[in-house]
Amino acid sequence: MASSPAVLMRLVASAYSIAQKAGTIVRRVIAEGDLGIIEKTCATDLQTKADRLVQDLPPEDVDQELIEDGQWEEILKQPCPSQYSGIKEEDLVVWVDPLDGTKEYTEGLLDNVTVLIGIAYEGKAIAGVINQPYYNYQAGPDAVLGRTIWGVLGLGAFGFQLKEVPAGKHIITTTRSHNSQLVTDCITAMNPDDVLRVGGAGNKIIQLIEGKASAYVFASPGCKKWDTCAPEVILHAVGGKLTDIHGNALQYNKEVKHMNSAGVLATLRNYDYYASRVPQSVKNALVP
Ligand code: AMP
Ligand code: MG
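The joint structure predicted for all components is written out below.
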C-alpha cells in the first residue's frame, strides 16, 4: 500500500491552494474599486481590505477548487526530501504575508503585489509559496492573469522559468517606498549598472529568479520575517542566497523577532561580489 504523503508536502499543497484563493480575493478587491486603505503606523505602512480578507480566509474554503485544477495532486506526487519526511505538524512554523507590496498595490502597480506563505523547520525556511495575482496584467486580454510559484529545499522551485542576468551585469533591485540614506549608500558602494526600485519582497525575489535583477539590496530595518520566509525558500531552492546585510542567515523559529533589523541581501549568483562591497559604516548602523 502506498504510504500517505508527508506532512510537509500536504502543508505545501494547502499553502498553494490558500495562496491561489488569496490571489483571487486580491483581484476581486481591485475589480470592486474600493481598496479600503487604512494606515497602520504611518503613510508608508498600509493595510487594505484585501489584506484583511486574505488574512481571514477560512482554510476549509479552499481545497475543493485546487483538487479540481490538479495542482494539489501534482504537489502531492512530488517526493518529500528525505530530511523532511518525518516532520510533524507541530514542528513547523508558517509565516504569512497576506499582501506584500501593499503600498504599490494602493498606487496601481499591480504586479508588485504578492501573497507569501513560508514554512520553517528548526528555524530554517524550507518551503514556500508565492502567488502573484496580477502576473501578466499588461500582457494583453488573452493572457492568463496571476500565477503561483512554489518550492521546497532539496526538491526545487516551480511555476516560473529560471533566468539569469547577463554575466558581468550588476543590476540591483531595492525598495521603492521605504528608501533611506543607508539604502542608497550601500547600493552606491556596489557600483551597479542599473538600480530598479519596485515594491514587495516577493516581487524582488521574482526579479532575481527571472533574470531581471542580480541582487536585492535593502540596508534598512522594516522588512519582516513574513516578507522574507517564502521568497528565501524559492531563491535557495534554485541555488541563490538570502541573508541579512552582514551575511548572517535569517532565523524563522516562532520565538524570533519579527523585524529583519539588519536588512536583506539576496542574489541568485555572485553573492560574494555584493557582500564584499557592503560598507563597514552601513554594517555598523544595522544591528541584527
Ligand atoms: P519594500 O521593498 O519597500 O516593498 O519592502 C518590502 C517589505 O518590507 C514590504 O512588506 C514592506 O511593507 C516592508 N517594509 C520595508 N520597510 C518598511 C518600513 N520602513 N516600514 C514598514 N514596512 C516596511
Ligand atoms: Mg510585506
